[in-house]
Design brief:
The complex is a heterodimer of chains A (about 280) and B (about 130). With about 280 residues, chain A is mainly alpha-helical. In chain A, helix 5 runs antiparallel to helix 6, helix 6 crosses helix 7 and helix 6 packs parallel to helix 10. The longest helix of chain A is centred in the C-terminal third of the chain and has 32 residues. The two termini of chain A are about 35 Å apart. The mean pLDDT of chain A is about 85. Chain B has about 130 residues and is mostly helical. Helix content of chain B is about 70%, strand content about 0%. In chain B, helix 2 runs antiparallel to helix 3. The longest helix of chain B is centred in the last third of the chain and has 32 residues. The radius of gyration of chain B is 22 Å and the shape is elongated. Chain B starts with a helix and ends with a helix. Classes of the chains: A mainly alpha (about 280), B mainly alpha (about 130). At the A-B interface, helix 1, helix 2, helix 3, helix 4 and helix 6 of A face helix 2 and helix 4 of B.
Amino acid sequence: MKRFSLICVLLFGAVLLYGSMDFPAFGDPESPASRHLSPYYIKNAIKDTAVPNLVTAVLADYRGYDTLFETAVIFTAGLACFLLLRRFRREPPEFRLYRHIDTGVTLIIEQGGKEPTDSNEFQQIDSQWVPYDLIIQKAAGLVVPFLQLFALYVIAHGHHSPGGGFQGGVIFGATLILMAISNDLRSTIRRVSEAVSSKLASTGVLIYAGIGALCLILGANFLNYSQLSKLIHVSSVMARSHGILLIEIGVGLAVAAVMVWIYYNLVSAGRHDEGL
Amino acid sequence: MPELIDILIARYNYWVVICLMMIGLYAMMAKNNLIKKIIGMSIFQTAVILFYVSIATKHDASIPIIGHGHNGHHAIHAADYMNPLPHVLMLTAIVVSVATLGVALALAVKAYQQHDTLEEDEIIEQLKTEYLSQ
């Protein structure tokens, strides 16, 4: 099997390499990919939408319909992970571990036993617990707020610099995952619960689709933001710029929430009790 | 011979992309472990992303962000800015590939829960004995 696949791969690679001889050279400004549609975008994007970042303008305005469904794909992936892995009804574990914080003594509470409730004195720990590294915990705690601020900057400043909803959303989701890795899964779930993350994910997609439907109600095509000028009293070009910002916020919400949601389900195999 | 070398050097991006793509394809076909197959799929996706981004490049062109102070004083030339379209397509493809990677890993977790192994031949063996015993 290995030899067969090696032969297949080498043959296929040779055919592709032979085919690449007819491709335009690297960096050729006259290549077919750069000749037809992209000059229009480069010349007219700032006139049409007042957005200097051409990637954002094409992503959220000219190809907004495409991006709407990309966001829907991400939401569906989060939903698929949830439906595949999540287990609600489960047998209670044979024992739980609690640690007395001052003395470091570990209590094993067997099934049916009374569990300590005072969270200042006792702390529930994972069954494969290793003492937390103080440096990692404190360093991650210091860095997370600045990373989250940076994620919001990347979303809000996507018009003028590299950035936008997808990138900022991923950074924001990664900060929450960093919190879960450096502390434990339970404390992160207490802050951002599964219900919150799934609702934020669907809200993000709904904001995007809702802005599109709003344009439809105002009497233009779906996702034609220039009609928003009737609501926010700016010129139709600036209305397109503001419309792009609104849907970028929706995309950012959806992406960040889905990243966290997928992480919760994957890392605890759907049980949401303990994990990395 | 020098002409051939010129042709090869002018298209080195395709060589890199095709090598990466074949590494990913080989991992998907020949590896027995499901996680290694998923890693191969990721390498393949990265190769496609690299291909799209490399065809957006133009010589002596800047990133596709129009500089400030460009208030119609002089015309915007398409040759001065890279092609934004492949960047847009790949921007969404990267995030979608992360999300589909999550789904693939979820399926792998499910397979591990069912069969207690991630080796493909052992899973097929288990499925065969299950089928024959019915």
